[in-house]
Amino acid sequence: xxxxxxxxxxxxxxxxxxxxxxxxxxxxxxxxxxxxxxxxxxxxxxxxxxxxxxxxxxxxxxxxxxxxxxxxxxxxxxxxxxxxxxxxxxxxxxxxxxxxxxxxxxxxxxxxxxxxxxxxxxxxxxxxxxxxxxxxxxxxxxxxxxxxxxxxxxxxxxxxxxxxxxxxxxxxxxxxxxxxxxxxxxxxxxxxxxxxxxxxxxxxxxxxxxxxxxxxxxxxxxxxxxxxxxxxxxxxxxxxxxxxxxxxxxx
Length: 251
Hints:
Blueprint: H1 2-15, E1 22-26, H2 30-36, H3 41-61, E2 66-73, H4 81-97, H5 99-104, E3 107-112, H6 120-133, E4 139-147, H7 149-162, H8 169-175, E5 186-189, E6 208-210, H9 221-232, H10 242-250
Parallel strand pairs: 1-2, 1-5, 2-4, 3-4, 5-6
């Protein structure tokens, strides 16, 4: 009860202040969470899927515009085959079970990455859910799957060159897999690790970073609200001095 009251109080505080438009999360710590309990790694991933549900609902509740989750990296294909298969099955299960939640809450599902590498039973569900939710406008939930940030920039540059566009920042921005999403404001990595592991390298140029110690399966509504609240307390300068930011805000 006390935790719920704290979350409700913090939610009111967060909603009363300017929100980040776009938050991305590296969902780290599933394996360590399971190993600490003597459980198979897949049990950590399954518990982590509950955190995905909780955080997505909270993001929608506070009216966040875009939430991007690093669900599976291109490098994760090198993990043990049984773990990879289990992750793909969990992803398919999530897409099946969350359809009503996504549609009822006006969420648009989006996916980025080398999606052709996903198994057919995942891609079929992913394409169907993206198609069915494409007119939803409440929040965009993006799943980064088989995602490689360096490849994201490289493919954008290749497309720009093939289309005869000038290779400048605008051309890259328009061709990234994240094109159309708001600028990234806040990048979160759970579990206390302080690296971004080839995730949204270009997009995070001016993002704020947060590295909460909590493992992803234990990261729920309250923890999400805490990192958003911390973001709201920061001064974002974008190359200006503190005095210039203060003068701009007074204008």
